[in-house]
Amino acid sequence: MSFTLPDLPYAHDALQPFMSKETLEFHHDKHHLAYVTNGNNAIKGTEFEGKSLEEIVKASFGKNPAVFNNAGQHYNHLHFWKWMKPNGGGKLPGALEKAVVDSFGSVEKFKEDFVAAGVGQFGSGWAWLEVKGGKLAISKTPNGESPLVHGATPILGVDVWEHSYYIDYRNRRPDYLKAFLESLVNWDYVAELYDGAKA
């Protein structure tokens, strides 16, 4: 299976003012495209040809950095664009909200811990809400790693590589993470992934 760059599920300017048109043009059209192009080149002639993206991510982790870095980031970004929507944020769907409250005590506590994970990720990486062993948990990973390679299913992730926020927020990563949770997250997509992870 070769990697392809999907169209954004909204216009480049649809997430303003929380994520600018310029950020999406660079992040989607250039950075994500580079992961697709480099990933396709890296898997040519290897045992990863013909495998699904998830299989490639899991099988290349710790074994083939050139394949893993690009496949991992391609996987992360395929979801990242869907984890956001215009007029996002707001109330969590019922079953997801209940699970979040059961796991973290409150939605606010979850948001605090999620922001803290993103702020606390040194350098490039991601913060995650994941399902592991049937339970919700928050984690953070460096570079292109995701919960997928640590035995968990990611249901929400936020990119804390500088190219994800520097044009709009400069060095104010906490402000970016708060804007992501309050104004960008597509909770319906998170709920859909949560339902799938429980099944």
Describe the structure.
- With about 200 residues, the protein is mainly α.
- Helix content is about 50%, strand content about 10%.
- A three-stranded antiparallel β-sheet has the order 2-1-3.
- The mean pLDDT is about 95.
Q: Brief description of this entry?
A:
With 199 residues, the chain is mainly α. 51% of the residues lie in helices and 12% in strands.
Fold blueprint:
Blueprint: H1 21-43, H2 53-60, H3 65-82, H4 94-104, H5 107-120, E1 125-132, E2 135-142, E3 153-159, H6 166-169, H7 173-184, H8 187-198
Antiparallel strand pairs: 1-2, 1-3
Number of helices: 8
Helix content: 40-55%
* Anisotropy-based shape: globular
Strand order of the biggest β-sheet? 2-1-3
Total strand count, please? 3
Strand content: 5-15%
Terminal residue distance: 26 Å
The rounded Rg comes to 16 Å
In round numbers, the mean pLDDT is: 97
Biggest pleated-sheet summary: 3 strands, antiparallel
Return residue spans where pLDDT drops below 50 for at least 5 consecutive residues.
Answer: none
Note the run of SSEs as H and E. HHHHHEEEHHH
By secondary-structure content and strand pairing, the structural class works out as mainly alpha
List keywords for this structure.
mainly alpha, 199 residues, 51% helix, globular
